[in-house]
Protein: MerR family transcriptional regulator
Amino acid sequence: MARVAQQVRQLYEMCAVALVSGRANLDGASEVGFDVELPVFTVGRAAELAHIHPQTLRQYDRLGLVVPQRTDGGARRYSLRDVSRLAHAQQLSQDEGINLAGITRILDLEEENRELRRQVARLRKPSGSSVFAADADGGIVEIERSGSARRWRRQIHVDPRALPARRERYDDGGTDDGSGSQAVVVWRMA
Structure:
């Protein structure tokens, strides 16, 4: 198990190096399966990957420029997104001479732009390519429709004639007219 964790850490480090060097971006890393929000790196390792002094990371945290996640013990843990932001902040500061307030605004706008591109990509998907479900808290979440879900749905055959008639009581205490009306289930087949 420790070997697997070490291999995963190495993959994340290789991805971080590619992000910092400009050979990859967060959208690409996410598309190939990296969790860009997973807190993987310690202060020292994140500083080394982003070519920043560890004290600078702590300063960025205090200023709210790059706020890492914390362990239960309070230790900072940085994600791929954080390392990418750190490296970009360093480049803007050192190469472009931009102050920290400007860097904060630039990074926030770039993240907003990235999120808008993701939304546009979702909207450009063909209609019917997504399924919506309720999460554990009752919120609505979008789920990619899979081939197995379509096969399962096609296996459901409802014969409306086989549905049982149901007599209902109305508020006035009477019963229905006895016509034997049936409920109908309608499935939209894509």
